[in-house]
Amino acid sequence: MPEIEHGSGSAQPATSSGGSPDNALFGKYELGRLLGCGAFAKVYHARNIRTGQSVAVKVINKKKIAGSSLMSNVKREISIMRRLRHPHIVKIFEVLATKTKIYVVMELVKGGELFAKISKGRFSEDIGRRYFQQLISAVGYCHSRGVFHRDLKPENLLVDENGDLKVSDFGLSAVSDQIRHDGLLHTLCGTPAYVAPEILTKKGYDGAKVDVWSCGVILYVLTAGYLPFNDPNLMEMYKKIYKGDFRCPKWISADLKRFLCRLLDTNPETRKTIDEILRDPWFKKGYKEIKFHEEDDFGCKSDKEDRDVTNLNAFDLISFSSGLDLSGLFDDSYNLVDNGERFVSAESPEKIIEKIEEIAKVEDVTVKRKKEWGVELEGRRGNFVMGVEVYRLTESLVVAEVRRRNGDAMAYNEMWRIKLRPELRSLMYQQLETQVAGN
């Protein structure tokens, strides 16, 4: 049982005389067993004392996110979650806060992640189709409300006790307000194996179309039992995604294969839309349109309640997303990797390697060529060894990884940060557009 803090005002602690547990959260929820934990939050099973309903409560430590960029996403995240009231999207009931903790009260989805189920073996086409129909219903609903998930994958899909799918983790989602004057989104984010090829080109993308791509990857995983694009080397996997290099297993029907090829079309202009998916013969088999009344299913909050939630200035799902934010890879300089750094360039691999060799010669550092586009640099006294490898990411972009392989960290830092990096900065990819905060 976690340590409970009680809020002020209307959220008074429960008392023994009131018939509720003394340690009830805000006098409303009795917290039970730990369901999961992450870097910034823990999730507990809880019971609504008044109704007896089981819920999940995510307990967030404010101190761990205070002062970080995460806090700037709070109001945007609340705005997104308030828009989504659908049978196949995890419900958020309320957000409570104290001086040091944030409590997000959510629907308890008892069946666990879809990922855990598919890891035991692939589904039949009929079962895969049923989950996919529910997924498309939820995703289409999100798009109609101007919300784009951008991190759809089996780990973010839950299954309830009735075997129905629930979309969760909108931590990397975007809203239509973030679309730039060119009609596109520009933040690079998502989980590598599920990311659409146009995200990798850094030219902007349609949020609805990248969600459709991710849905296609999910459908492939459900019916094939493995990923369509996979490689232990991240850059090699990105190459496969960019080229649309995948094959359907022999047990997949011709109709499903055709359908998947349209979902995983590398050209977003000819990729299927949600409306086209809904009309597709493979998809339509056994499909019943999901009808519901938002007010009946979820209730309505008063304007005052909406203001109270917004003014909490505390709700933030982004910090708990398991997705990989790729935006750091495309900063106007570099980002950190293990024992080194990584940067993107629009120059050719040959030019980058030649520039490194030129600088190394001036610094009297030994250079050895490695692989096709790689070099190893060794200090004069052998006091450091560093490697640089350049990978072709797309037709116009490459990624260079710089790593310390051996020797003194200070000597490596001096060579990389003081000697090499300033000289290479002119080759590093520069943003062509002014970044818009939050997208």
Automatic annotation (TrEMBL):
Binding site for ATP: 58
Keyword Manganese carried by entry: yes
EC id: 2.7.11.1
Biased composition (Polar residues): 9-20
Any single GO BP term: signal transduction
Domain (Protein kinase): residue spans on this chain: 29-283
Positions of the NAF domain: 307-331
GO molecular function: ATP binding; protein serine/threonine kinase activity
Keywords: ATP-binding, Kinase, Manganese, Nucleotide-binding, Serine/threonine-protein kinase, Transferase
Similarity comment: Belongs to the protein kinase superfamily. CAMK Ser/Thr protein kinase family. SNF1 subfamily.
Alphabetical list of CDD domains matching this protein: CIPK_C (cd12195)
PANTHER family found in the cross-reference section: CALCIUM/CALMODULIN-DEPENDENT PROTEIN KINASE KINASE-RELATED, CBL-INTERACTING SERINE_THREONINE-PROTEIN KINASE 11
UniProt region (Disordered), positions on chain: 1-20
Xref: InterPro entries: Kinase-like_dom_sf, NAF/FISL_domain, NAF_dom, Prot_kinase_dom, Protein_kinase_ATP_BS, Ser/Thr_kinase_AS
EC class: transferase
Cofactors: Mn(2+)
Protein name: non-specific serine/threonine protein kinase
Biological classification of the source: Eukaryota, Viridiplantae, Streptophyta, Embryophyta, Tracheophyta
